Structures are given as structure tokens and as C-alpha cells.
Amino acid sequence: MAYSRVSGAIYFDHKAPGATDVLGKMAESADAPATLDAFNPQTPQYKALKAQLAAIRGGKTVDANNGAHEAKSPITDSKAKKGHDAKADAKTVDTAKPLSADTILANMERWRWMPHDIGATYVMVNIPDYTLKVMQDGKTLWTTRIVVAKVGDHATPLLTDTMKYITVNPTWNVPPSIIRNEYLPALARDPGALARIGLTVSNNPDGSIRIFQPPGERNALGRIRFNFPNRFLVYQHDTPDKKLFALPARAFSHGCMRVQNPDQYAEVLLGVSQPDQHFTAEKIRALYGSNERTITFKMPIPVYVTYQTAYIDDAGKPQARTDIYGLDSGVLRELHGDRRTSETPVTRNYNSSSKPVMSSATAGSNARGNTRYPASPGYLTWDSQQVRNAYQTTDRNRAW
Length: 400
Description:
Blueprint: E1 10-11, H1 19-28, H2 32-37, H3 44-57, E2 63-70, H4 77-81, H5 86-89, E3 92-98, H6 101-113, E4 121-126, E5 131-136, E6 139-149, E7 158-168, E8 172-173, H7 176-189, H8 193-196, E9 200-203, E10 209-213, E11 224-227, E12 236-237, E13 251-253, E14 257-259, H9 262-273, H10 281-285, E15 293-306, E16 310-312, E17 318-320, H11 327-335, H12 339-342, H13 360-368, H14 377-380, H15 384-391
Helix pairs in contact: 3-6, 6-11
């Protein structure tokens, strides 16, 4: 089925084989079952789910560990930021529930969207499990907790791309969607709001508004950014807000993935990419400062951002996780619906939220001539002089 029918926050550059290819290979084959199976993903996870599905259809009950559940009421992001004792409320209980055939089917379908050969060494993110793993030769080399995006428009996308470099002491360039939807309204309410948290407002040569945060301890990206360039403009990064990692459910970001132990993650990745340089977590931390530093990978590493609500863990036990983004229900709606429409992709503009926020004067001229930045209420709210005036406050040079 076409993944674009489920969500606009999914993109895999993988094409299903055509009927002619399938029939041609079947006609030439001396082993029809093996030939058909070769069109399916060859990953151990897909094959393990297939075995569980066969067991359920054979009348067996497959009980899955349902992961960590909060023993008390959920902790909100605001409570955590106010110094709430997250560890005290993060006590969890393990429960088991029967795994349904539908849940397995939804997860098998998502595996089919991905490249069927995922390689020997890669990074695997499982959004509903809030974890990141570095895999090598079928084994987990290293794993850590992550924070993923909020439910809704900011959902962390499903994708695959290649980790090419890391940035130590990154500058945070605020995405246009956050500028438009959050920071300009904040400036309207309080002209000094952004300066107090170390953000700088300026204008780009094309007249668009730039808001950024220089490197430092308070930088929203922390001390390290992990870059795998993609059409959604998301990445993995450190964070100064460490309390959230103690929570069992960790969906708080605007799309990117926050990593609990970024210095160790960098050590592992660089150890795989360029072992001759002997990078360690201590060596990485020694680079912390006020200037951006880029370390390019000699061997780029594939990154897979997945959504596994049912999977088999390293000990061979079935696991189930909460469908936080509702993707299981979306997949099943298509699988149980009209297959003629489910196989037809929906046209998506994957870069719609990355259009620059223009000043009113520039937006007006573009509306009359150059249509690169279509006019919208978000572009017309503030002109560049208003932004500069709002930022001229005694807090501008406050230490951050």
C-alpha cells in the first residue's frame, strides 16, 4: 500500500516491484516460494513478526510485554520543567497482553516500505519505544533513551537517510514553522521574551526572518547535533533538558530526536566510522566550547527512523508498544479498505513547513511577482523593522 495515504510524515525512497518483474522472475524460477519470499524484507525483525503472525493464525496466543507504564498519573512537560521529581513518578510496572494479528500486520506493512536490505551497520530509532540503537552484524552495539516529537503536526517522521557528520557546539537555527507559530506570537506578547533565553533575531539577505541561538550550555540542541540530511529537516541532538529522559513516555519535541547520552553516541558512531582516530566520550567533551566544530564521517552510517508497536527484542521475546501517533489504525484502515485506492499514493509537499518567514514588504513583492514564498497570514504578521524594534531591549546582551 502507499504509505502517503497514512501520513504526510513518512517518506521512503523504495518502490514496490511491478507485476512484470514479479511474473518474469517467477517464470524463470526453479523455486517459486523462495522467489516470492525474496520480494519481502529480509530483516530478522520482519521474519520474526511473520512467525508470530503464523502462530496467532494457527490458534496460539502470543503474549507481549507491553513495556513501561506509569504507576501514577502522567507527568506533564511543564511539571518536569518546574523541578518535579520525575524519577519518583517514573516507577513502572510491566504488563503483558495478547498480541493481535492486526497489530503484527500493520508493523509488517511498515517494514515493507523500507529498503529491504538495511545493511550490516546502521542506527535504528523506534519511535513508540523511545529508543535508539546502533546495530552491527545483527547485534545491538549500543542503545540509549530518546525523546521524540509530540503527537500531532510535529510528529517525528518515518524515514531513512545517511548520517554524514556531527556538529559539536551547534548553532540552533529556529525552523520557520516554530518562528511562525510560536516565536513571533511570543514577541508580540513580550518583546524581550526571546532575548532572555539567548535567542537572536536578524534578517537574511532575501528579507526572511532568522532567529537563532548561538552555541552554549543553554542551547536547545545541547552540545552535539547528529546530521543525516533529509527532506523533513530533522536530526538527532543533545538537550539541556535532561529530566524528560526519566519519564516512561517521552513525546515532547518538535520533530527531532533528543539523545540521552550524546557524547557516548558520538564515540560509538565515530568508532564505527573512523576507528583509527580513537574518539572517546572524553575526547568529544573536550571539544565543548563556543565555536562550532564539524566532524565528517569517513564511513557514512544509514539511519532508519521506524515505528514498531510490535517487535521481537534481543532476548527473542515479543514486545508491544502504545500506538502514540495512531499509525497502526491508519495502516489497518487502508489494508481493510478498498485496495484499489490504498495502492494509489497521495501527493505530499514534504517541505511545506520549511518555507522562510518573510517580512511584510518582501512578502508583498513576492506576491506580486516572484512566487517562491506564497503569501499567507504567517508571512504578513511582522515586518523586519517591527522585529528589530521588538528586539531592541535591555535584555539583548544578557549572558546566556
